[in-house]
Amino acid sequence: MSLLQDYEEAREKIGHKKYDAIEVYLNEICPQDNWKTYKKELKKIDHLEINEWEKQKKKLEKKYGIVFLDDILYSEEGWKKFEEWYKSYSKPKEILEIKAIGIDNWDRPVYKDNKGIIYKDISLGKGNLRDSLCTSVNNDFYGEPETPLIKDLKIEIRIVDKFKDKKKENDKIR
What we know:
Blueprint: H1 3-14, H2 16-29, H3 32-44, H4 50-64, H5 69-73, H6 76-89, E1 94-103, E2 109-113, E3 118-121, H7 129-132, E4 133-136, E5 145-148, E6 155-159, H8 166-173
Parallel strand pairs: 1-6
Antiparallel strand pairs: 1-2, 2-3, 3-4, 4-5
């Protein structure tokens, strides 16, 4: 099995959402600046014998906090660290309430949030809404799908029949 097939199999077992979060995790624990500096220093040692090069490479990885996908997928310790991070990462930070307002002329379900923003379901109601919900060009019911919400794992989407009246809630509090 090739490395890419191996990663694709891992993606299927873990689930696309969680697998995609690994990239976010890697960027958080090892910022791009660290990678750039690591690569520059790695070039400086390319003249070394293979055994010495391996030792120096390991030192550089430790120095710059370099973590590879394999360090997560194939290391129990690496996976545990990712799982801990993922618990807080995967908790929704915001709830997007939307209500259905119809079907456009391409058979896409159309929704609107309480701020009046229109969203289109590009999977035609057959997929995961978080992966298939897009804003609409010019916020128009018949506009083309525009910006997807796919990467924003911090949003929980809820379909509601009607929106809560914030004014009434505030009046009850007083």
